[in-house]
């Protein structure tokens, strides 16, 4: 029997670029940072537009260091850290991908649903709350890897092992839906989960190289495809 032939009882989702477009959060974070800078420095520069163009060019790392240099802001390291915190912990205005609420309701009729997501726990909780979907998920099966401690982010198996244990099901009865082939599927593949990459246009990480052992069981582009892969 194939390791992926068991009936799926638990379906776990990533958050960023799986449940909603990550670009929404990025854009909102840049606006929050720009508003803070305009207020603190008494300037009128459209910092967010420069940051957004940089992001669209595929440059994501070191955004605020580059901003500091580009606009001659003369910010020290502590001030840059405060900008990073402003970005991460702003209250986001984000909306699920079209169809996601209906898919979650449909799957939730026959399966238990969970979340497993990387990133600062406080930031990820803000996102989950903003999406308005908490009732779709079993609280016991929501794992923020940051809360588990250092070294527990994907591709660590720690979060996946916790979810299977909390659900009291074998790994083969679990599935993980994510977007990033560089890290999302390594651990669940090794544990025997069914893995599904939900590929949408304009995702931030979807075209990254596949990690060794990280090839998803399925790649889908639509809601019905996703549901069929779980049947």
Descriptive overview:
- By secondary structure, the chain is of the alpha/beta class.
- Helix content is 42%, strand content 11%.
- It has a six-stranded parallel β-sheet with strand order 3-2-1-4-5-6, with helices on both faces.
- It is elongated and about 60 Å long.
- Helix 1 crosses helix 4 (77-89).
- It folds into two domains: 10-21 and 94-229, 3-Layer(aba) Sandwich (Rossmann fold), CATH 3.40.50.1000; 23-89.
Structure summarized in a few sentences:
With 231 residues, the protein is α/β, with parallel strands linked by helices. The protein has ten helices and six strands; from the N terminus they run E-H-H-H-H-H-E-H-E-H-H-E-H-E-E-H.
List the helices and strands and how they pair.
Blueprint: E1 10-13, H1 22-41, H2 47-56, H3 63-70, H4 77-89, H5 100-108, E2 112-117, H6 121-131, E3 142-144, H7 145-148, H8 158-167, E4 174-178, H9 186-191, E5 194-198, E6 218-220, H10 223-229
Parallel strand pairs: 1-2, 1-4, 2-3, 4-5, 5-6
> Average pLDDT value?
95
CATH architectural name of the largest domain: 3-Layer(aba) Sandwich
Looking at the structure, the CATH topology of the largest domain is Rossmann fold
Q: Helical percent range?
A: 40-55%
Q: What order do the SSEs take from the amino end to the carboxyl end, as H and E?
A: EHHHHHEHEHHEHEEH
CA-based shape: elongated
Query: In whole angstroms, how far apart are the ends?
Result: 16 Å
CATH superfamily of the largest domain: HAD superfamily/HAD-like
